[in-house]
Specification:
heterodimer; A: mainly alpha; two-stranded antiparallel sheet; 4 strands; 66% helix; globular; B: 112 residues; alpha+beta; 2 helices; 6 strands; elongated
Chain lengths: 507, 112
Amino acid sequence: MKKLIALVLLWLGLALAGGAVAQTKPAEQGDKAPAATTTTTITETVKVESKEGTVTETVKVEEKTAAPAAPVPNKGDTGFMYVATVLVTLMTIPGLALFYGGLVRQKNMLSVLMQVLVVFSLLAVLWALYGYSLAFTAGNPFFGSFDKVFLRGITPDSVAATFSKGVVIPEYVFVLFQLTFAAITPCLIVGAFAERMKFSAVLIFMVIWFTFSYLPIAHMVWYWDGPDAITDAKTLEAVQANAGWLWAKGALDFAGGTVVHINAGVAGLVGAYLIGKRIGLGKEAFTPHSLTLTMVGASLLWVGWFGFNVGSNLEANGTAMLAFANTMLATAAAVLSWTFLEWIFKGKPSMLGAASGAVAGLVAVTPACGFVGPMGAIVLGLVAGAVCLWGVNGLKRMLGADDALDVFGVHAVGGILGALLTGVLCAPALGGTGIYDYVTNAVSPDYSIGGQVVIQATGVVTTIIWSAVVSLIAYKITDMVVGLRVTEEEEREGLDITQHGESAYHA
Amino acid sequence: MKFITAIIKPFKLDEVREALSAIGVQGLTVTEVKGFGRQKGHTELYRGAEYVVDFLPKVKVEVAVKSEMVDQVLEAIEKSANTGKIGDGKIFIYDLEQVVRIRTGETGPEAL
């Protein structure tokens, strides 16, 4: 416990120091803008703001004119990203917290709510202290740099790149949007070791895992200099050299299939193995204490996920609305496939099954939502419902770990499926968007399904191995510092009373 | 005096209460209970995990009556709680030694 307190004090000290540094350098600009000045114009900015031009029209304007001017964020895009960020927060607290909370026994309800709430808050702060900088600045292919620790140099005028040339958003909303991703991902892991892990151990593990697994994988998959830096083959090469390892390889992950779901799912499975099964598993009834709350949580997840997936487009345009349609359709399709398969093979269509199907569909469409067509999304959802149903039944029995709330069976399995099928369904021949070429400023005419699936698989395997190794080390360190598991008596009495000193319900 | 305990299906409680009131029973005590008899339990399936639920919810009705009323009470409960399906429940009858009405201190049949 002393070590934990020391750690907390250290963070607070760093936070105060960081605030001071940030205040002394108010004029320092974000480093994403410089390339933009050479390729953008006033004419183009007006066009974007009036929302009349499509991406291709914007590009034509660029070629004709030469007077440089920095792009300004569009108010609509800014408002859109703000709403998306708020929705992802809603998706975590209370959405994910209630979804998980309803699934545990009454005596552990508060421990789950508390773990989600505090882990979210802890990582939100760490994100501002050093997370954003390590994930979203240029460094090496695996880690960013410390250039923006304590959000140094970011002002209300700083801008972040989107996926369209000449379109930017305020950097603060980008920082906050990505903050919610960094904060929800570790919360997903909580489900795997629910009902038996020490609260202090949860927090220590999360700090280590966030720093050494979430941040590098987010950097590998998502960091690049932005589209404005690409004008020809040579600048493309420079951007690729500067980008994250998997981004440079061309791995497609629209909203976080690898970074969020595979990453968290694998960490959960490793945790379930290391911590061991809950006492009484297989002998006593471990029935969910409130499927009503689980339904409330699942519904909030679905709604919040629109912020997650649609907001990942970073600007309010047609691709964002494609992601919206795909998120809706894949989720609905997965609800149907899980429900009907359960009805056929298990005898009854359960509410928990339908809610689990919704989450499976949401997870699977996450990497795909901006790349596939609506019919592709329905196919993806139908397959996801079926595969994740197997993930929590056959696969779970095969693995033999007590992954209490099926983090691996739903998030890792759904994430892997989504990542791989993104490579297939992105193909223009199958109704997908294909891959946009920022050199020719058009969708690349060549699309190789096989080639892209191999790239996607590289991303999947990299994430699995990276997360597994980091998790293993993080759990071992945590075990040495405070111990992972509560005592047998504490586990029987419930974590609410023994860890938090309160009860969820009073009869 | 006799003490009668009847285990019945929960949704039959109102009919049993009405039948007992109709023959002049002045009061009774009801408890929600769980148990099993010949009626099988059921299984519940949560994702991959299947649980057998052995104990089914029942209602326990307790009533104290004068000895001469026993047959009437038995008949009333038997008729009103009957569905003809397995799991209708059971009735137990005991001898009752003494009854005291707390407010007045009355004892015996007077206190019923």
